[in-house]
TrEMBL record:
Catalytic activity: UDP-alpha-D-glucose = UDP-alpha-D-galactose
Annotated source species: Microterricola viridarii
Database matches in InterPro entries: Epimerase_deHydtase (IPR001509), NAD(P)-bd_dom_sf (IPR036291), UDP_G4E (IPR005886)
Protein name per its UniProtKB record: UDP-glucose 4-epimerase
Entry keyword set: Carbohydrate metabolism, Isomerase, NAD
Pathway: Carbohydrate metabolism; galactose metabolism
Alphabetical list of PANTHER family matching this protein: UDP-ARABINOSE 4-EPIMERASE 1 (PTHR43725:SF53), UDP-GLUCOSE 4-EPIMERASE (PTHR43725)
Domain NAD-dependent epimerase/dehydratase: 3-249
Length: 320
């Protein structure tokens, strides 16, 4: 038996795949490579190239492989772009999830771990976000992730689907050489590409109500995140009690200024970041409690900030 990882050729999905393999659990991958990379797929893992909007492809995949459950990582993950492309975002994140759930139901597969997002909270009015913090998404992306959670909840009522949703915050670092974040919108790759191109990285605003004036965010290592996906899958498979949602957060925060200092030290490229104007809607601080996930999903911060920067930098340079 195996677990299907949708989006398993992407940055996060490829780490989830390797966490399953490290636990001696077989994996199958489906990915359309719209943001994933074929070279991220281990040679021994069955790989279906295509969209989860393709019900026929999913039907064939489930017919050809004994699937125990699904880790659903595939999706359109660019919150800012989603404001300009709401229909595309809803198609990729809501319609595609519904197609996947129908294919699972048709195949008799009734376990799923869903990749959700901190974007469901919008701009929370609290110093420490918990799973019970009010949901107020501020982009089609955040809305689509919340709807995905609702779809799982409703399928659980209707069909007995066993499910949980993991709300990510800022995922960084690398657990394997050659696996790195290629997003054109995330902070770490933006800084690395600037340094590699000889440009000066920038900070959007330094007048926030924080210790150094820059935004404080929750940064978590991708390998730690991947371990908790396996723990969630194993808990579902064992039929143990599981919460419908978990925050994968540090309980602490790191400022953008602190990240820039760590980047300069780890890379050996000294720089003073350019200070740009604030971005509209950026709150001073967003940090989440990971206590519920620590209790149930082997969640812990195994990596320091320097570990996160160093592993991400080494993986990016190994791929250069």
């Amino acid at each position: 038996m195996a677990w299907l990882v949708t989006g398993g050729a992407g940055y996060i999905g490829s780490h989830v795949v390797r966490a399953f393999l490290a636990d001696n659990i077989d994996v199958v991958i489906v990915d359309d490579l719209s943001s994933g990379h074929a070279e991220f797929v281990p040679a021994e893992v069955p790989f279906y190239r295509g969209s989860i909007l393709d019900a026929e492809l999913l039907g064939r995949l489930f017919a050809e492989n004994p699937i125990d459950g699904v880790v659903h990582v595939a999706g359109f993950k660019y919150a800012g772009v989603s404001v300009q492309r709401p229909l595309h975002t809803y198609e990729q994140n809501v319609t595609a999830t519904a197609v996947l759930l129908q294919a699972m139901q048709d195949a008799g597969v009734n376990r799923i771990v869903f990749s959700s997002s901190a974007a469901v909270y919008g701009t929370p009015n609290t110093d420490l976000v918990t799973e019970d913090t009010p949901k107020a998404p501020e982009s089609p992306y955040g809305e689509s992730k919340l709807i995905g959670e609702w779809l799982l909840r409703d399928e659980g009522v209707a069909t007995g689907l066993a499910h949980t949703s993991l709300r990510y915050f800022n995922v960084v670092g690398s657990g394997h050489d050659g696996l790195y974040d290629t997003s054109p919108h995330n902070l770490f790759p933006l800084v690395f590409e600037a340094l590699l191109d000889g440009r000066t990285p920038r900070i959007n605003g330094n007048d926030y109500a924080t210790a150094d004036g820059t935004c404080v965010r929750d940064y978590i290592h991708v390998a730690d995140l991947a371990i908790s996906h396996v723990a969630a899958a194993e808990r579902l498979q064992a039929g143990r009690e599981i919460e419908p949602v978990y925050n994968l957060g540090s309980g602490d925060g790191v400022s953008v200024g602190e990240i820039m200092s760590a980047m300069a030290e780890v890379t050996g490229i000294p720089f003073a970041p350019e200070i740009a104007p604030r971005r509209a809607g950026d709150p001073d601080r967003i940090v989440a409690s990971g206590e519920r996930a620590r209790r149930d999903l082997d969640w812990q911060m195994r990596h320091t900030l320097d570990d996160m920067v160093r592993s991400a930098w080494e993986a990016r340079r190994a791929a250069a």
